[in-house]
Amino acid sequence: MGHLDIEKLRAAKVATEPYNYVVVPGFLSPETVRAINATYPKIDKGGSFPIESLDDSMAVREVIAELDRPEFEATIEEKFDVSLDGRPKMYSLRGWTRAKDGQIHTDSKDKIITVLLYLNDTWQQPGGRLRILRNGDDVDDFVAEVPPDNGTLLVFKRSDNSWHGHHPFEGQRRSLQMNWMTSDASKGFHAIRHKLSAVVKKVMAG
Prior knowledge:
Blueprint: H1 6-11, E1 21-24, H2 30-38, H3 59-67, H4 70-80, E2 89-97, E3 111-118, E4 130-133, E5 142-146, E6 153-157, E7 164-165, E8 171-181, H5 184-205
Antiparallel strand pairs: 1-6, 2-8, 3-6, 3-8, 4-5, 4-7
């Protein structure tokens, strides 16, 4: 039995205002979320971390393998009317949010589609809830708020107005991010930046 509820994704409606996005609560089952958290890597610093060092025994590895399957890509292509054939993918993990994180942004122009999969237990905090925003100035001017919990999936098509952000939160906040990139060069740039960031954090922690 797979981890991803592809049928639930297929049935979900893509919102078009203020930009194209879809939210799928429970895209991962409670059992899968528990398994992921039981074997999640220890990340107690902010920023994004590459997935290359993940142990094969970690349940999140199985989820990544399913995200890599043609079925998921074809579903995203259909829902967002975009061709992703041959486009490189980039993955990163987060485990800790800093007070400065969550500032309003659109994502960089070398990203085509952003996929966020939230891996926390039921989220009780007022901060850290990602908001789909109408503009780049006001985090309280939003059309949807996505709690980062219980295997919720958020997918959006990057654009010049794909504003999103959240109120500050500091503490454990687990998520898996995947992006389809415009080119291998852009993927490589982000991957190197994430690796350097992880190395610096490890050195500082030591």
